[in-house]
Design brief:
three-stranded antiparallel β-sheet; elongated; 3 domains; alpha+beta; single chain; Arc Repressor Mutant, subunit A
């Protein structure tokens, strides 16, 4: 029997506001000098403290909802979510339940195949092929705002609590269980993160815990329309964790059913070191949280004019930008998606194109190749780049018009990243001008052929892989400055002329 997974995601993202959700304390808890210093009676839940809704957080939540094609509830309310954890100072969380600020949205995804998932015991436990169901719509059930919890640090025999994070505005985006593969879940999560960064509402820095995923997973026989018992994997703080945990849990549930067992509804954690999910507690339903209207906060009443003012702040979003890059610049979908994965990267690319005479595809190749390679090797992000787009455009044009070769271009790019400067001046100082003199290159090619008769004979006898070796000799003799097209043409003719 083959199974298909049923996956829904809950995405929690801290909102980039100056103050906390219901009080005036700074939301920048990472910059607090000491634990439990960025606090007040409201965010520590002291008796008599009254919450006040953060207007900016409300605007950002509505902005995200509109970007996800949601309806905005002009009348929405807050609720108390009653359950006790040591990291909730009040003993309950102020959230939204019956009337969230946004609901009934959607997002189109086009998942790409991943490495095939590990199989369960026997072929009967295999999953559908990766990539099945490409091009699908995921419904967004709701987008609501709540407050983040405090931070717990577990020591050997005790735990420490830091309330600096307690009360930071937290956005929760809840999908319907519409995804049928880990690939789909990954694509959806990746695109939501990109939207949050495009909108400037969340940094997307999962290593710092400001964006977390929770996967709700069940499996069922292919062809069935039932929804079986699901489990929830909490606090996944990387795409890798999302993929690995989902893959493991899907296979775990398939194995249980294949062995005649029953999947228990529960909340799970992910042990990244061992690569397994672990039980944390039985899974709660909504009634277990004992929601009731927050008595200290009146309902939010949002006007049509206010909603339209938020809508006017929407930038060009990743999907629209991707489509435009394909139509305007002649890029492939994969090339366009790479460039639009980050708003800063997309803007940088467009600035280079605007200042360059080179084809957009050539510019993409430079940015996706040597440019990103340097950033990755240096541990930098696109936001850290100080190299002006105009300067990169000038360098690329020098390679395009054959003022310098590609190898010299890489040398200049490295120098620009490290020390800045003008590409033309660097080329002059390092003597990197490309050699285009046919007679001079011919002389070098002839000498190489004369000095290596054995290799010439082996090449002409059928060992064609030696051709790259000959071209390497030309590059070495000219220090990479020979026009590669001219050198290749002369080398082909020279070798052909020496056939016995």
């Amino acid at each position: 029997m083959k199974y298909e997974p049923i996956i829904g995601l809950e995405i929690h993202g801290e909102l980039l506001t100056k103050s906390k959700m219901f009080c005036g304390c700074s939301a920048d808890y990472a910059s607090a000098p000491e634990p439990n210093t960025n606090i007040c009676p409201t965010c520590t839940g002291l008796p008599g403290a009254m919450p006040v809704v953060n207007k900016k957080a409300t605007e950002l939540a509505a902005l995200v909802g509109l970007a996800l094609n949601c309806s905005i509830n002009k009348h929405n309310t807050f609720a108390r979510k009653n359950y006790y954890y040591p990291d909730l100072p009040k003993g309950y969380q102020i959230s939204q339940y019956e009337l969230p600020i946004c609901e009934k949205g959607w997002m189109d995804i086009s998942p790409s195949p991943l490495t095939p998932l590990p199989k369960g015991e026997g072929d009967s436990g295999s999953l559908l092929p990766p990539g099945e169901g490409l091009g699908m719509r995921v419904r967004v059930r709701r987008v609501h705002i709540e407050e983040d919890t405090a931070k717990l640090s577990h020591e050997k025999n005790y735990a420490l609590v830091d309330f600096n994070r307690a009360g930071v505005p937290l956005l929760e985006i809840v999908s319907e269980p519409d995804m049928r593969s880990v690939e789909a879940a990954l694509d959806y999560a990746t695109k939501v993160r990109a939207i949050l960064r495009y909108l400037g509402v969340n940094s997307g820095d999962m290593e710092k815990g400001v964006l977390r995923f929770e996967a709700n997973i069940s499996v069922r026989p292919v062809g069935s329309d039932e929804f079986r018992t699901r489990t929830e994997i909490k606090n996944l703080n990387s795409f890798r964790a999302l993929v690995r945990a989902s893959q493991y849990e899907i296979e775990r549930q398939i194995k249980i059913y294949e062995e005649g067992g029953t999947v228990v509804q529960e909340t799970l954690g992910w042990d990244d070191v061992r690569g397994v999910t672990t039980s944390q507690r039985s899974k709660e339903e909504a009634h277990d949280y004992r929601y009731f209207p927050e008595p200290d906060l009146p309902p939010l009443q949002l006007s049509d004019a206010w909603i339209e003012s938020i809508r006017s702040q929407l930038p060009e979003l990743p999907e629209a930008k991707t489509a435009r890059f394909i139509s305007d610049f002649g890029l492939t979908p994969s090339e366009a998606r790479f460039l639009t994965s980050e708003r800063t990267l997309a803007n940088y690319f467009e600035s280079v194109v605007a200042n360059s005479k080179s084809p957009a595809k050539t510019i993409h190749s430079w940015i996706a190749g040597e440019f990103m390679r340097y950033l990755n090797d240096s541990g930098l992000s696109i936001d850290d780049v100080t190299l002006a787009p105009e300067t990169l455009a000038k360098l690329i044009d020098m390679v395009t018009d054959k003022t310098i070769g590609a190898s010299a271009g890489k040398t200049v790019l490295t120098e620009l990243f490290k020390n800045g400067g003008d590409p033309a001046q660097i080329v002059k100082e390092k003597n990197l001008l490309q050699m285009t003199d046919v007679d001079a290159i011919q002389e070098i090619v002839t000498k190489i052929l004369n000095d290596n008769p054995k290799e010439v004979d082996e090449y002409n006898a059928g060992k064609e892989t030696l051709f790259q070796w000959f071209m390497g000799q030309v590059a070495r003799a000219t220090k990479g400055k020979a026009d590669p097209n001219v050198a290749k043409e002369l080398m082909v003719k020279g070798l052909a002329g020496r056939k016995k």
